[in-house]
Design goal:
The protein is an alpha/beta fold and 403 residues long. It has 3 domains: 61 residues; 95 residues, 2-Layer Sandwich (Beta-Lactamase); 235 residues, Rossmann fold. It is built from 13 helices and 15 strands. Helix 1 packs across helix 2 and helix 1 crosses helix 3. The protein is elongated, with a radius of gyration of 25 Å. Strands 9-8-10-11-7-12-13-14-15 form a 9-stranded mixed beta sheet, with helices on both faces. The protein has a 6-stranded antiparallel beta sheet with strand order 3-2-1-6-5-4, with helices on one face.
Length: 403
């Protein structure tokens, strides 16, 4: 019935007065009138009418075939590989969607609609952009000639109600004991860094830890694309980077935002993700009295995260490696490492304390390690087990928090 939708849609567009703005209700009334006329000529079932009404409205006013996926709370990831292939992640499993874009022109219209909502620009001369949807979903877009098979869109969706620590415990992502331990560390202003691979749940976990921050503190959040949902803190300033214009001018980077945040009287600074030379500014911020700050980064283990931070700092400053390691060891207190296991479950795999420098290397003290004990019907059985004690307890004592 694709031909019928295209024909009806064209009739709707011809009926619209392009010289004036029309509301969503007015557009739906026009669609209803044309559907009624068409059903007199050819029988159209009520179910088909509802589908055509929704599809035509979404194509004209919304994001076409993507709209129903965006409105489905069970869909957590949408992957568009050109006009013909759309894949979704639903309940942790990837499926091929049964719909596609009717033309490359329509897909390009949707791309421009997405970026214009977030005041971003993407075109052949600047074919890669990170953006967001009004509901906070994160969007990455790559256009031809970089994307060989047509425009590629990847949308990471976040739940309207952020996941809580109780839900993570229910999902067996973390134990009650480890959750209470981290809660006390957040309250006591330990600097915590969350590491993990793509899709391991770093942003979700950062949201969870942020809910432990006392509501009387002033928080500054700094992100590439606004994703954090800190709803319990009244005194909060949210900042997002700005890409340069087509000439590459007027760009505002993570480094710029970290520097200006220090003049905004923050109690804590939360950096959504550290992925470039901004690492040096973040470490300096943590070393200048902004205890209790949080951030995330991509890595395969806590030790690997430390090595990656060293590399990122070297991108921004020519500093001896020994000095960089001392800065990292002084700035970070705890590393929480997350992973996505082969059964698609997201788990806290390790919680380690950053002790300091020993024999020229940063020393880690593992506190909790995920112990896998087997499988049951393709579901991994295991839990986060305590294997060590926190050695640096000065911040706990100063804040009056007891383990």
């Amino acid at each position: 019935m694709g031909w019928l939708k295209e024909k009806l849609q064209q009739e709707v567009l011809e009926s619209i007065d392009i010289t004036s703005e029309i509301t969503d209700d007015e557009l739906l009334n026009i669609i209803d009138e044309i559907l009624l006329m068409k059903s007199r000529e050819n029988y159209i079932s009520m179910r088909e009418k509802r589908r055509l009404r929704r599809d035509i409205f979404n194509s004209i006013r919304k994001l076409d075939v993507l709209q129903e996926l965006i409105e489905n709370p069970r869909v957590t990831e949408i992957m568009v590989n050109g006009t013909k292939d759309i894949f979704i992640e639903q309940d942790g499993v990837i499926y091929r969607h049964d719909k596609c874009f009717e033309s490359e022109e329509k897909l390009e219209d949707v791309v421009q609609q997405i970026v214009s909502q977030a005041n971003r620009i993407v075109n052949a001369s600047s074919p890669i952009v990170d953006s967001s949807l009004p509901d906070g979903s994160r969007v990455n877009i790559v256009l031809p000639p970089i994307a060989l098979d047509g425009p590629a869109i990847t949308i990471r969706r976040f739940p309207e109600n952020p996941i809580t620590i109780d839900q993570l415990i229910k999902y067996q992502s973390i134990t009650q004991e480890a959750a209470e331990f981290l809660e006390k560390l957040v309250i006591a202003k330990y600097n915590i860094f969350i590491s993990g691979g793509t899709g391991s749940g770093k942003t979700t976990f950062l949201n969870v830890l942020s809910n432990y921050i006392p509501d009387k503190e002033r928080i500054i959040t700094i992100e590439d694309s606004a994703e954090l949902q800190l709803r319990k803190i009244p005194n909060i300033v949210r900042m997002e980077v700005r890409n340069g214009n087509t000439e590459g001018e007027n760009q505002i980077t993570i480094r710029d935002l970290i520097k200006t945040s220090l003049r905004m009287r923050p109690d804590r600074i939360i950096v959504g993700e550290v992925r470039d030379e901004a690492a040096i500014d973040m470490l300096q911020a943590l070393n200048t009295g902004h205890d209790g700050s949080l951030s995330t980064g991509h890595a395969n283990s806590p030790a690997d995260m430390l090595s990656r931070l060293e590399s990122l700092v070297l991108l921004g400053a020519e500093i001896p490696l020994k000095a960089i390691r001392r800065q990292i060891a002084s700035a970070l207190d705890i590393i929480v490492h997350l992973g996505r296991l082969r059964d698609k479950s997201r788990r806290v795999l390790e919680i380690s304390e950053v002790l300091g420098i020993r024999d020229g290397e940063i020393e880690l003290n593992p506190l909790y390690i995920f112990n896998e004990r087997g499988e049951d019907k393709e579901k991994i059985i295991g839990s986060l087990e305590k294997i060590g004690d926190l050695k640096s307890q000065d911040k706990l004592k100063r804040s009056g928090v007891k383990l």
